[in-house]
Amino acid sequence: MADDEQLRTALVEDLDAGFEAVVRTHGDVVHAVARRTADRPADAEDLAAEAFLRAYRALRGYDAARIERLDLRPWLLTILLNTARNDRRDAARRPRTDGAADPPDRASPAPGPAERAEATDLGDRLAALLAELPVAQRTAVVLRHVVDLPVAEVASVLACSDGTARSHAARGLAALRSRLTAPPPEETS
Amino acid sequence: MTDSLLEDLRDLAEPAPATLAERVVDGWVRAESPLGEVYAVVGAGGVRLLRTATYAGDLDAFLEGYRARHGRPVRPAPRPPRGLLPALRGTGRSPAVDLTDVGDFARKVLDATARIPAGQVRPYGWVAREAGHPKAVRAVGTALARNPVPLLVPCHRVVRGDGDLGQYLSGRADKVALLEREGVDLPRLAELAASGTRLIGSDTTGIVCLPTCHHARRITAPHRQGFASTDRARAAGYRPCRDCRP
């Protein structure tokens, strides 16, 4: 695995070869965040691939000086989250015609009560609770605690101060803790 | 004391499937074809672009054109995709092709064209009808002129309704060479065209075919009946062949 300094040099020397190295180095973190952002598990790889292609298209327009200054990981994750937001907006605007899924009837990817009830496994339950968090808290928790980014990078992706990033993550964690210890939701309606 | 919530959260980080890099980065290869060397760009979904070297010119310019038009990175592939070389030699079915970047109409046109058997030709109007747009004959010509994967989707097997071979994206001479190589009897097609014969029927079966249909080729001379149109053939009591669907 190359570090970002090597990757930037590789991108400047040969954009396509460098980009393949970028995908191999940052593919896991981009996919892990995509997995916690996409509405359906099957969409995570599509979303990650689409974000990488957008990044590639942006890089084609960048000169060497701009590439040298890029902080690759937060830059890629910012593109990923923008891509996810655009996809969700597009999906809400026009129904999918490929029969893959009904359009989500709300902006948040939170699973419905039925899915929550099914989430017996702790990991599934935690993922479902995570998906229900307000978007800033969820993103902060995913970046800070799921993929283990330093606070400064979380702040860079969220375009906020370190203090705000820290507080989003802390409030998200606190919400998860209280919901995990709360009794499971009543089945009665 | 370890915080189990933090550990559980870290367990939610699912690594990327091994396929992610190949879905993002396409590969290019050179291969031999009946038209000489070809360049092919291959993605995870199949062959995305194929051009003869003579037509595409300089390899670097070809690749740069691909990147600019499709906004996708492309790197040398270690080996051609399975099935590409036999398909180019004419000894196997086409490998998967990825037509996601062409429009709906063009995809239907290419799908219909892909069903034309080797050694046979079909008119543009036939492709238009099979693609579900019987009136869009000219648009079929345009779509085929932009075929991203010639040879694999055999657009050289589509000819003009009047029997003339028509155009080909890398030139008419290539079309002639490909059809001759597949055993199409071009002089005979020209003769039929000149005499206004579009269809061949058998007076023993009462079935009428396009001239290159394998059923039509089996009709012996004494039983062979030429027709200028399906309407005329129907009027004479013939029914269209279910294989070549004239």
TrEMBL record, chain A:
The keyword Transcription appears for this protein: yes
InterPro entries: RNA_pol_sigma-70-like, RNA_pol_sigma-70_dom, RNA_pol_sigma70_r2, RNA_pol_sigma70_r4_t2, RNA_pol_sigma_r2, RNA_pol_sigma_r3/r4-like, WH-like_DNA-bd_sf
Domain RNA polymerase sigma factor 70 region 4 type, first and last residues per copy: 125-176
DNA-binding is among the record's keywords: yes
Residues of the RNA polymerase sigma-70 region domain: 23-94
Any single Pfam family the record assigns to this protein: Sigma70_r2
Keywords of this entry: DNA-binding, Sigma factor, Transcription, Transcription regulation
Full protein name: RNA polymerase sigma factor
Biased composition (Basic and acidic residues): 88-105
Coiled coil start-end: none
Region of interest (Disordered), residue spans: 88-119
Top-rank taxon: Bacteria
Record NCBIfam families: sigma70-ECF (TIGR02937)
Protein source organism: Actinomycetospora aeridis
CDD domains: Sigma70_r4
Family named by the database record: Belongs to the sigma-70 factor family. ECF subfamily.
From TrEMBL, chain B:
Classification via SUPFAM superfamilies: Ada DNA repair protein, N-terminal domain (N-Ada 10), Methylated DNA-protein cysteine methyltransferase, C-terminal domain
GO molecular function: methylated-DNA-[protein]-cysteine S-methyltransferase activity
Pfam families reported in the protein's UniProt record: Ada_Zn_binding (PF02805), DNA_binding_1 (PF01035)
Listed Gene3D superfamilies: DNA Methylphosphotriester Repair Domain, Winged helix-like DNA-binding domain superfamily/Winged helix DNA-binding domain
Domain Methylated-DNA-[protein]-cysteine S-methyltransferase DNA binding: 104-184
Keyword terms: Activator, DNA damage, DNA repair, Methyltransferase, Transferase
Top-level lineage group: Bacteria
Enzyme Commission code: 2.1.1.63
Domain Ada DNA repair metal-binding intervals: 194-246
InterPro entries, per database record: Ada-like_dom_sf (IPR035451), Ada_DNA_repair_Zn-bd (IPR004026), MethylDNA_cys_MeTrfase_AS (IPR001497), MethylDNA_cys_MeTrfase_DNA-bd (IPR014048), MethylDNA_cys_MeTrfase_DNAb (IPR036217), WH-like_DNA-bd_sf (IPR036388)
Gene Ontology terms: biological process: methylation
Reaction(s) catalysed by this chain's protein: a 4-O-methyl-thymidine in DNA + L-cysteinyl-[protein] = a thymidine in DNA + S-methyl-L-cysteinyl-[protein]; a 6-O-methyl-2'-deoxyguanosine in DNA + L-cysteinyl-[protein] = S-methyl-L-cysteinyl-[protein] + a 2'-deoxyguanosine in DNA
PANTHER family per the UniProt record, alphabetical: METHYLATED-DNA--PROTEIN-CYSTEINE METHYLTRANSFERASE (PTHR10815)
Protein name (Swiss-Prot/TrEMBL): Methylated-DNA--[protein]-cysteine S-methyltransferase
